[in-house]
Amino acid sequence: MDIKQAIAEKVEAFASVPAADVASWFEVPPSPDKGDIALPCFKLAKSLRKAPPVIAAELSAAFSGFGGIIKAEPSGGYLNFFLDRKDEAEKVILRVINEGESYGCSDEGAGRNVCIDFSSINICKPFGVHHITTTVLGHSLSRIYKHLGFNPVRINHLGDWGTQFGKMLVAYKKWGDREKIENSRSPMRELVDLYVRFHQEAEAHPELEDEARAAFRSIELHDPENWALYDWFKEMTLKEAQRTYDLLGVEFDSYNGEAFYEDKMPAVIEELKEKGVTTVDNGMTIVDLSAYGMPPCLILKSNGGTIYPTRDITAAIYRKNTYDFYKNLYVVAYQQNLHFRQVFKTLELMGYDWAKDCVHVNFGMISMPEGTFSTRKGNAIYLEDVLLKAIEKTKAIMTEKSPDLENMDEVARQIGVGAVIWGPLYSSRIKDFTFSWEKALNFEGETAPYAQYTHTRCCSVLRKAGAYDIKKADWKSLDNESTANLVKAIDALPSAVESAAEKYEPYLIARNVIEICSSFNKFYFENRIMDEDESVRSARLAVTDAARIAIKTGLYLLGIEAPERM
C-alpha cells in the first residue's frame, strides 16, 4: 500500500475523516530536515475541536513504530513524517519498473469522454506561431486525460465561415493564378498574399468590401462555382496544416468547424425563443445577461445573420448529444473570457445542467522578439517555419557536439520540435510568453533539450551496464540524500499528472520532469552506479531505469519525444 494511503487510513481511524480526503492533503515540507511529507492538521481542527498543534502532537504518538516511517514529528500545525528511505525506494522503484511507460496510469476516467476543442486554425489564413499554445496545450491535455483512463475527443473547430471567405473569393478572381497556387510549395502563402492585397486595395476602393459580402452570401447559398472554390481553399489549408501537425505529432478526431453547424443553428435559435431565453433589441435577437454582470449575448444580427455565440451554443449542444461528455474543454486565449462566460450562462438559462461541465481553458499570448502578428498586414510568422528553423538550429549544434551520431536528422527533429513545444508548457498557461531561441535550445537549465539529454544519459548508463537483476538489488545501499530526493521526485509524477488534469495545467508535469532530471544528475555524480558489488550496482541501475521511465513518460504527456541518443 502507498505510504500516504496508509497514513490517511490511520488518520481516518483517529479522527473519523474519510481517508480519501486526508490523502489529498499531504504537502512537501520546505526543506529535507523537516521530513519527507507533511500532514497539515488545520483541516482536522473543526471536527476534533482542538488546536492544530495539539492534534499534531496527539497524532504523532499513533505513528510510533508504524511501518515505513522512521518518525512522525509535530511542527506547529503540521505533522512531519520522516520515511524509511530504503523502504520507500524499493516500493517506488519496483512500481515504476513494473508499470513501465504506463507509470501513473489509472482507470479514473473509464467510460467518460472529455471533449477538447483546441488549435482551431482558420481556413485561408496562416497556421501561425500564435497557434502554438492552444495546439500543444490541447494536445498535452488529451494525452493526460488518456493516461488517466478518460476517452479524449480531440476537436479542431475550424474557422471556416465568415466574410473573410468572400474577400478571398474576390481577391482570387481578380488577381489569383490557380496553376501558380497549386504548384507552390506553400499554396497557403499564395492565398495569404491575395488576402493582404485585398485589404491594401480596399483602402483605396472600399466598394470591394461590398463585393466580399456579396461573395460570401453566394457561399451561404451554395452557389456551385463559389462553393467549389471555397472547398478548394479549405482542402489546401488542411493539407498544408497537416505538415505542421505531423511535426508536432498532433492528431484530431473531428475537424467539424463553424460551417458544420450552419444547418443545425435554426433549431437551436428556435429552442432559445421557445424557452423565453431571448429578447429582441433594435432588431437584434439577444440573451439579456445584465442580471449576471455581463453585456447581452448576441444570437442574431439585425439582418438575421448568425454570429460566434450562436455557433458555439449549437456546437456545445451537438457535442453533448454526440459524445455525452464528462467535460467539454475550450483551449482558447484569455481574450475570449467574456465570450465563453456568455455562452455557458446562456446554456444554463436554456436548462442544460451540463453547462457547468463546459470549461474555458484560457491562456496567455505568445509573441516573438519581432513583435505581434497580423495576417492583414502580412507579417504573420508561420509555425512550420519556426519548427523547421528549430530543427535546423538543433542540427547545427549537434553536428558540432556529436558529429558521429546516427539518425542525426531524426534526433534533431525530436529535440528541435520539443524545444518549441516546451516553452508554452513550462509556465502556468495564463502567463504571456515570449519565444526565445537561445533559451529554448539551451541544453542546460529548465528546457526540453536538458530533459531529453538527461533521458539519453539514463539510456547510455543502462546500455553500458547491460542486463541487471533487480531481485539482487540491495535497497539499503540507496539510503542517502541524493537517491532519496530522486526517488521522491519520481514518486511525485502520478500526483503531478492528476493535478495537471484537475487544473488543466501541464506545466505541473514539466516542473516535475525537471525535478527528476536535476535529481538524477546529482544522483549520477554522487553515486558510483557501476559499483563492483552486484547488489549495489543492481539497485542503482534500477533507480536509473526508473528515472528513465519517469522522464520519458512525463515528456510524452507533454507531447515531446525522448531520444535514446543525442
Helix content: 40-55%
Report, as a whole number of angstroms, the end-to-end distance: 38 Å
Give the number of helices: 22
Give the neighbour order of strands across the main sheet: 5-4-9-10
- CATH class descriptor of one domain: Mainly Alpha
Largest sheet: 4 strands, parallel
Indicate the radius of gyration in whole angstroms.
28 Å
What is the count of β-strands? 12
Q: Could you state the CATH homologous superfamily of one domain? A: Isoleucyl-tRNA Synthetase, Domain 1
Question: What's the helix and strand layout?
Answer:
Elements: H1 3-15, H2 19-23, E1 37-40, H3 45-48, H4 52-62, E2 69-75, E3 78-83, H5 85-99, E4 113-117, H6 132-147, E5 151-155, H7 163-175, H8 178-183, H9 187-204, H10 207-220, H11 224-248, H12 265-274, E6 279-281, E7 284-287, E8 297-300, H13 308-323, E9 327-331, H14 337-349, E10 358-361, E11 366-367, H15 383-401, H16 408-425, E12 433-434, H17 437-440, H18 448-465, H19 481-491, H20 493-503, H21 507-526, H22 534-558
Parallel strand pairs: 4-5, 4-9, 9-10, 11-12
Antiparallel strand pairs: 1-3, 2-3, 6-7, 7-8
Helix pairs in contact: 5-19, 5-22, 6-16, 6-20, 7-9, 7-10, 13-14, 15-16, 18-21, 18-22, 19-21, 19-22, 20-21, 21-22
